[in-house]
């Protein structure tokens, strides 16, 4: 989204200052009018700063979005914004987030119930008793147990986590499955292959894996569904943000357009107060125009074309008749040329200073080399 020429406020301020200092360019109450226009320009400048910040916010959203931008800021129009909002509104209707979460929670509770059935079948086996409670490390004298087993696990701990209501419990069935496997694998790791506990753990683990394979399709189905719902929720958030940004973009475009008109009115107020330009000033103006770069020359041609519809601003060669221009056009040209040449002079001066610094640095470097060579 291209903002209007935001340097217009500076131009108007320059216009006010120059014409205010000219003395003859203002009426007796010019000082009051200068203050009034300055105040209005300050208000417009403040508003432009606010709008620019909002533009930055929109730009940051689109630059951080992984999706392709729906529209470019440059060349955007109110029509495009409305079409974008219409497209967003007409997109498919998504599930209500609250209802979707409730349905997901209900499905997960059903999976937990099915897992509880599996767990009950395993724990009721005649060989499950060694795994029901945490290992009594001290009572059994297993001094190296914590060196071998990094994360102890048992069925009472699993059951407590399944029934936890404070949010610390299991989030999905795979977490429970991992801990059930851990119970048996810990026993198989710590106990010798030929020991009773090792054989009991391996037998129960095989039985658990068989029952887990029966439940696994439902677990996968729920995981897939959850991923789709999360992707859908993220898409909804993206669409909502894009809709908000589309509205902000349109509002900013409207406000900037209004500010542009207001600045144009202020500029016209300034140039109408200007005195008639002398022949010498016209000559200097023509000389200044000839010194502009091709890029800077486009703006003066636009200024002339505004008051002269028949003027061919895009022609390869343009002949500007200063006497044929209105006083407001001449003063606007003067203000622009002055600013452009001052900017060009400043840039040239900076370049000269940079070049001088490079030469000084090179001389100092060579002198240091010669001094070092002489000392050796």
**Largest sheet composition:** none
Structure summary, number of beta strands:
0
> Which assembly state applies to the chains in this document?
single chain
What are the segments in which pLDDT stays under 50 over at least 5 consecutive residues? 1-28, 66-80, 87-95
Rg over CA atoms, rounded to whole Å, is 39 Å
Net shape: elongated
- If helices are DSSP runs of H or I spanning 4 or more residues, what is the number of helices? 12
**Strand/helix succession:** HHHHHHHHHHHH
Average pLDDT over all residues: 76
β content, as a range? Answer: under 5%
Helical content class: over 70%
Structural class of the helices, strands and pairings? mainly alpha
For the terminal residues, how far apart are their CA atoms?
64 Å
Describe this structure in words.
- The structure is a single chain.
- The chain starts with 7 loop residues before the first helix and ends with a helix.
- The protein is mainly alpha-helical and 376 residues long.
- It has 12 helices and no strands.
- Helix content is 73%, strand content 0%.
Write the layout of secondary structure elements.
Elements: H1 8-22, H2 30-64, H3 78-89, H4 97-123, H5 137-140, H6 145-148, H7 155-163, H8 173-190, H9 196-272, H10 279-290, H11 294-307, H12 327-375
Helix pairs in contact: 1-2, 1-9, 2-9, 3-9, 4-9, 8-9, 9-12, 10-12, 11-12
List the main descriptive attributes of the protein structure presented here.
376 residues; mainly alpha; disordered N terminus
Concise summary:
The protein contains twelve helices and no strands.
């Amino acid at each position: 989204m291209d903002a209007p020429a935001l340097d217009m406020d500076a131009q108007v301020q320059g216009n006010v200052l120059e014409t205010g200092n000219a003395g003859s360019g203002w009426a007796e109450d010019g000082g009051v009018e200068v203050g009034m226009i300055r105040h209005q320009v300050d208000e417009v400048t403040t508003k432009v700063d606010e709008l620019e910040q909002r533009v930055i916010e929109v730009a940051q959203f689109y630059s951080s979005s992984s999706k392709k931008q729906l529209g470019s800021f440059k060349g955007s129009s109110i029509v495009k914004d409305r079409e974008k909002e219409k497209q967003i509104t007409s997109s498919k209707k998504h599930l209500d987030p609250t209802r979707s979460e409730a349905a997901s929670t209900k499905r997960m509770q059903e999976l937990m119930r099915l897992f509880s059935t599996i767990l009950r079948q395993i724990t009721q086996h005649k060989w499950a008793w060694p795994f029901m409670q945490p290992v009594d490390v001290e009572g059994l004298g297993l001094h190296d147990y914590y060196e071998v087993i990094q994360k102890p696990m048992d069925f009472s701990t699993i059951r407590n986590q399944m029934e936890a209501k404070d949010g610390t419990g299991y989030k999905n069935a795979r977490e429970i499955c991992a801990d059930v496997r851990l119970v048996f694998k810990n026993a198989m790791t710590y106990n010798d292959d030929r020991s009773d506990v090792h054989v009991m753990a391996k037998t129960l683990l095989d039985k658990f894996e068989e029952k887990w394979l029966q439940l696994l399709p439902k677990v996968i189905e729920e995981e897939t569904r959850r991923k789709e719902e999360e992707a859908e929720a993220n898409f909804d958030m993206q669409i909502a943000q894009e809709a908000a940004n589309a509205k902000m973009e349109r509002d900013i475009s409207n406000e900037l357009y209004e500010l542009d008109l207001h600045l144009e009115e202020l500029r016209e107020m300034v140039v109408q107060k200007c005195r008639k330009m002398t022949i010498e000033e016209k000559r200097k103006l023509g000389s200044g125009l000839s010194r502009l770069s091709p890029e800077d020359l486009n703006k003066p041609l636009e200024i002339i074309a505004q008051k002269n519809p028949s003027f061919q601003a895009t022609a390869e060669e343009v002949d500007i008749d200063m006497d044929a221009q209105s006083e407001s056009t001449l003063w606007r040209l003067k203000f622009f040329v002055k600013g452009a040449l001052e900017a060009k002079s400043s840039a040239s001066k900076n370049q000269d200073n940079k070049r001088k610094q490079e030469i000084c640095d090179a001389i100092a470097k060579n002198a240091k080399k010669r001094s070092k060579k002489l000392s050796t």
